[in-house]
Structures are given as C-alpha cells and as structure tokens.
C-alpha cells in the first residue's frame, strides 16, 4: 500500500522522501524515519543526526526510527524512539516511552558484523547472487506489519524482529 492509499485510509497527508540522510539533513523533519543502509557507518551517522533532532519543535516532531539491516540470509528490523515519546496511561499494559536506537542496543554487534562480514551491498546488482532473494522483501513486510499494528492499535508489544531465512526463524524484539 503506497503513501497515497495510506493517506486516504487514515485521512493523513504523509509523504515518503527517498534520499540520503545525514547530519546535514536538518530540514528533513518527519515523525517517522525508516532506514535501510549498506554500511554500519551510515547507520551510526543517521543515529547521530536523529539524536540531535529530538528537541525540534515543528509540525512533524521526530518520534520514531525504524531501521532495517540484513546480511546474506539474516536481518533485523528495529523500532526506536527519538527521545522520549509521551504515552497514555494504561491499566492493562506497562507503557514504555523510550526505546533505544539500534546503534545503542546492538552497537557492538553492528561494528563486529562490518569487520567480520563481506556481505554484499543491498544496492548493487551483483548482490542478488550473494544475497537471499527474499531477505529484503521479508524484512520489509515484517516492518510494515509492525508499523501497521502500531498505527491501527495505537500500541505494539514488539519493537522489531531478528530474522533468519536459512533456518526459517524469526525472533521478536519485545518492548
């Protein structure tokens, strides 16, 4: 479902902006950021830029960052908050206003994966020979499902997943 269909369904005016994001992208304010980058350095650069964005007061206050990453047949999608996000009180659930960045929670693993791995870039044509055909689309569907449940239900009990297509396993990341 593209941005236009989502906007009609929810009565919103969202738009997707497909461009390089870095610390110089200060004017690219959005409520939700979604990233899929080829290098660990790029992921840390996005985290640094978003860390400084939490205090911005615009119509689109940065609130969430959903990061996608993958190797040959494994990958992850991780939802984080940008700063603290005020949550409604609940008698049924323990509410959580802050979810760590992927770079905070898995920083050491990310650095190790870049030095230990010769995983292909997901943006190169030859990557299809070394990367499982369905790793990207499977992760994309998992991330979209997480985002859909969060928007539809106003909450989520999971903040992402770790996927292994070789073993056909997915491990949820609970809030």
In short:
Helix content is 33%, strand content 19%. It is an alpha+beta fold.
What composes the largest sheet?
Answer: 5 strands, mixed
Shape: globular
If you average the pLDDT, what whole number results?
85
For this structure, the quaternary state is single chain
Number of helices: 6
In whole angstroms, how far apart are the ends? 26 Å
Number of domains: 1
Which parts are unreliable, with pLDDT below 50 for 5 consecutive residues or more? none
According to DSSP, the number of beta strands is: 5
Helicity level: 25-40%
Strand order of the largest sheet: 1-2-3-4-5
The Cα radius of gyration reads 16 Å
Overview of the molecule:
With 175 residues, the chain is of the alpha+beta class. The chain has one domain. Helices cover 33% and strands 19% of the residues. It has 6 helices and 5 strands, in the order H-E-H-E-E-H-H-H-H-E-E. It has a 5-stranded mixed sheet, sandwiched between helices. The radius of gyration is 16 Å and the shape is globular.
């Amino acid at each position: 479902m593209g941005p236009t269909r989502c906007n009609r369904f929810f009565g919103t005016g969202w738009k997707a902006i497909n461009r390089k994001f870095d610390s110089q992208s200060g004017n690219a304010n959005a409520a939700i950021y979604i990233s899929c980058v080829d290098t660990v350095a790029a992921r840390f650069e996005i985290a640094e830029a978003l860390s400084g964005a939490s205090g911005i007061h615009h119509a689109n206050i940065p609130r969430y960052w959903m990061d996608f990453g993958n190797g040959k047949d494994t990958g992850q999608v991780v939802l984080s908050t940008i700063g603290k996000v005020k949550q409604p009180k609940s008698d049924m659930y323990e509410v959580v206003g802050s979810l760590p960045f992927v770079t905070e929670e898995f920083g050491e693993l990310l650095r190790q994966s870049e030095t230990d791995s010769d995983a292909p870039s997901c943006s190169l044509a030859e990557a299809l020979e070394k990367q499982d055909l369905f790793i990207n689309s499977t992760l994309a569907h998992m991330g979209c499902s997480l985002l859909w449940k969060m928007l539809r239900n106003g909450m989520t009990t999971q903040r992402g997943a770790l996927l292994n297509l070789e073993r056909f396993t997915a491990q949820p990341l609970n809030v």
